[in-house]
Amino acid sequence: MTVTTVIKVLKEVTQWGPIIAQAGKKIYDNTKGMFGNRSLLKKTSIAITLQELDKKVSQLEQNDLDQTKLLAEMAQQTDNLSKLANVLVTRIRYATGFAGISLLISIYLLIRNLS
Questions:
Q1: How far is CA 2 from the centre of its chain?
Q2: Would you kindly state where each structural domain of the chain is located, as residue ranges?
Q3: Computed from CA positions of residues 81, 82, 83, 87, in that sequence, does the dihedral angle turn out positive or negative?
Q4: pTM of the predicted model over 0.85
Q5: For 24-83, what is each residue's pLDDT tens digit?
Q6: Distance (Å, whole) CA 94 – CA 69
């Protein structure tokens, strides 16, 4: 396993980080808009028309759909990240094994040449 291969795998693993963070921010912004400003909701009048109520329900349904899509994307990205991490761990194990064997061979050859 070469250094470029390790760098390539690390690059693939790290490319998903910003996408996951962006999805989390989007979910946070959606929920903050609905639940974060409770003090402002208390100050407004309680009289709400049926049209406004229908509009709010539609917005909530749309937010729910958007969040479901985001969660599905995040699940897929997490799965990809998990697979890439497993590949990286396996390659590191092989590299460590090869390095250990190479070290043992080097020590053997060094002792044989010094004798």
A1: 26
A2: 3-114
A3: positive
A4: no
A5: 778 777 777 666 555 555 555 566 788 888 898 999 999 999 999 999 999 999 999 999
A6: 38
DSSP labels for 67-89?
Answer: HHHHHHHHHHHHHHHHHHHHHHH
Q: What is the amino acid identity at position 99?
A: A
Q: Which two tokens stand for residue 63?
A: 């937010």
> Which of helix, strand or coil describes residue 38?
helix
**Interatomic CA distance for residues 71 and 63, integer angstroms:** 12
Listed in sequence order, the residues at least 6 apart from 91 whose beta carbon sits closer than 8 Å to its beta carbon are 1, 5, 6, 9
Side-chain half-sphere CA neighbours of 73 within 13 A: 17
Retrieve residue 29's tokens.
């912004």
What whole-number distance in Å separates Cα of residue 76 and Cα of residue 83?
11
Please enumerate in sequence order all residues whose Cβ is within 8 A of that of 37, keeping only pairs 6 or more positions apart, or say none.
Answer: none
Q: Sort residue 44 into left (φ over 0), alpha (ψ -120 to 50) or beta.
A: beta
Distance of CA 101 to the CA centre of its chain: 35
